[in-house]
């Protein structure tokens, strides 16, 4: 059974990011995967303290809710991370999460826990799906260090409307199929 860890970086419990991540999780579960789903805005966690303890050990010394989720990521087959775009960037909790992934890479910037497939989900108010493409690519440059193989980036546009994803049948199918693919491939 495949294990998939999903991180929702949206503060809105019923918004577009949640709609798409829930469909990915359902697609994975419907095809036999175990899904661990985390809502970052509900989690109590600290930002990376840059203590470099994880350079000597393969774990973070901060014992909080992200630490527990990191243990799931280490064992997972796939990771899914979703964020709305606020001020042309991911939300703050998602950035803090990426910083906390530092223990997933060794001192020579190699992944410590093997390769994991990854799906990135972004929602944005603007209607051009390519508007932030360079930012998405810039962010994805760190994924190989963690052992993440980005297999798909899903972008929901016009997301100032909280029903934008819900009304986009093709996007919903794409999200569900991404989950199915993570469970089966």
Summarize the structure.
The chain is built from 8 helices and 5 strands, in the order βαβααβαβααβαα.
Mean pLDDT: 96
Question: What structural class do helix, strand and pairing data support?
Answer: alpha/beta
Secondary structure tally: strands:
5
Q: Measure the end-to-end span.
A: 11 Å
Determine the fraction of residues in helical runs and give it as a percent range.
Answer: 25-40%
Q: Tell me, what's the shape?
A: globular
**How many separate helices?**
8
**What is the chain-wise order of helices and strands?**
EHEHHEHEHHEHH
Q: Looking across the biggest beta sheet, what order are the strands in?
A: 2-1-3-4-5
Q: Tell me about the biggest sheet?
A: 5 strands, parallel
| Rg over CA atoms | 16 Å
The stretches of 5 or more residues where confidence is low (pLDDT under 50) are none
Beta percentage is: 15-25%
Verbal overview:
This protein has 8 helices and 5 strands; from the N terminus they run βαβααβαβααβαα. Helix 1 (about 15-30) crosses helix 8. The termini are close together. The protein has helices at about 15-30, 55, 65-75, 90-100, 135-140, 145, 165, 170-185; strands at about 5-10, 35-40, 80-85, 115-125, 150-155. It is α/β, with parallel strands linked by helices. Helix 1 (about 15-30) links the parallel strand 1 and strand 2. The model has no long low-confidence stretch (mean pLDDT about 95). Helices cover about 40% and strands about 20% of the residues. A 5-stranded parallel β-sheet has the order 2-1-3-4-5, with helices on both faces. The protein is globular, with a radius of gyration of 16 Å.
């Amino acid at each position: 059974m495949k294990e998939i860890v999903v991180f929702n970086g949206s503060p809105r419990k019923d918004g577009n990011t949640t709609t798409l991540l829930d469909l990915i999780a359902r697609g994975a579960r419907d095809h036999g995967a175990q899904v661990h789903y985390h809502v970052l805005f509900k989690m109590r966690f600290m930002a990376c303290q840059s203590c470099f303890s994880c350079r000597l050990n393969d774990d973070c010394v901060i014992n909080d809710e992200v630490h527990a989720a990191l243990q799931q990521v280490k064992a997972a087959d796939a990771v899914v991370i979703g964020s709305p775009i606020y001020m042309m960037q991911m939300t703050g909790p998602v950035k803090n999460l990426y910083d906390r992934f530092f223990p997933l890479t060794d001192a020579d910037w190699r992944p410590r826990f093997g390769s994991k497939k990854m799906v990135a989900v972004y929602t944005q108010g603007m209607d051009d799906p390519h508007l932030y493409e360079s930012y998405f690519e810039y962010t994805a440059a760190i994924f190989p260090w963690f052992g993440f193989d980005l297999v798909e980036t899903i972008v929901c546009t016009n997301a100032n409307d909280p029903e934008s994803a819900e009304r986009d049948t093709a996007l919903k199918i794409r999200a569900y199929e991404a989950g199915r693919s993570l469970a089966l491939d």
